[in-house]
Specification:
With about 270 residues, this protein is α/β, with parallel strands linked by helices. The protein has ten helices and eight strands. An eight-stranded mixed β-sheet has the order 1-2-4-3-5-6-7-8, sandwiched between helices. A hairpin with a 4-residue loop joins strand 1 and strand 2. The protein is globular and about 55 Å long. The N terminus is likely disordered.
């Protein structure tokens, strides 16, 4: 009888794990199928309601599996916050835009049109900007800001963790020159595609909720602080966090907890 009691006592803990699936989403823009991780809260199996979605972008040299492999606690957070977490693949070094010099790299189109359409078609999602957020680390932090500001009709909130928010500061690194060309001939792209500059295109009517996070020992700390100061000068509301930390998974595993809570609070305003 005691064993039976223990079994039923522990059963809820075994039954509350989120589901992690790896799917493929075909990109007509790039003519290939691309892998993507979907983390669904346990309640998704039993409830018929629609769920808010957070898209989590990986960094330079990463892939779609990074987030769940490095931060397995995302399963618990999907359950705690009752949201779908989508981890698409952004290529080794796409920087999440449609490259003006390489027609095979069209990751802005892929994420903003093809991935969202697939997820909204195949999962029970809240199909408007108030049920959709995007965040990322490093290259993905830049990508989240880039995609949300260029597509405010799609996203209601965005987050950057240790974002590479000024491309020119890394002009000889991270394959950026392969994506937008040299800094002389294609200088306008280096300017216009950097978050510290395109933030000036943000309009209050876009009504995005921003959270920006960077460690004080991170190589990208200075440019993130500059972005924060620029947003203050432009009177753009945002949450800004800086704390001791480096450009590594220890920092991002901690940062993502705050970003997901930020997004949950945002979604709650529109329930």
């Amino acid at each position: 009888m005691k064993k039976l009691f223990i079994f039923f006592y522990l059963l809820p803990f075994f039954c509350t794990a989120a589901t992690v699936d790896t799917i493929t989403i075909y990109s007509a823009a790039m003519k290939k199928s691309i892998s993507c991780v979907v983390i669904s809260p346990n309640s998704y199996k039993t409830q018929k309601s629609n769920y808010p979605v957070v898209y989590l972008l990986h960094g330079y040299s990463g892939n779609y599996s990074n987030w769940i492999q490095k931060v397995p606690s995302l399963k618990k957070q999907a359950d705690d916050y009752q949201m779908l977490l989508i981890c698409p693949d952004g290529g080794f070094s796409s920087w999440y835009f449609d490259s003006p010099v390489d027609s095979t790299m069209r990751y802005e189109t892929y994420i903003s049109k093809e991935v969202i359409k697939y997820i909204d078609t195949h999962y029970r999602t809240i199909k408007n900007k108030h049920g959709r957020a995007i965040a990322g680390l490093s290259m993905g932090g830049h990508g989240a800001l880039f995609l949300s500001i260029r597509h405010p009709e799609l996203f209601g909130a965005c987050g950057s963790m240790s974002g590479g928010v000024d491309l020119l500061s890394s002009h000889n690194k991270y394959d950026i020159i392969k994506r937008i060309g040299d800094t002389t001939t294609n200088n306008p792209y280096w300017h216009d595609y950097s978050a510290v500059n395109f933030i000036e295109n943000y309009k209050p009517s876009d009504s995005l909720a921003f959270i920006i996070d960077c460690g004080t020992s991170d190589g990208f700390y200075t440019i993130n602080h500059q972005l924060h100061e620029k947003m203050l000068s432009l009177k753009i509301q945002h949450d800004y966090i800086e704390r001791p930390g480096e450009h590594n998974w220890d920092y991002w595993a901690n940062a993502v907890k705050y970003q997901l809570l930020f997004f949950r609070n945002y979604f709650n305003k529109y329930k």
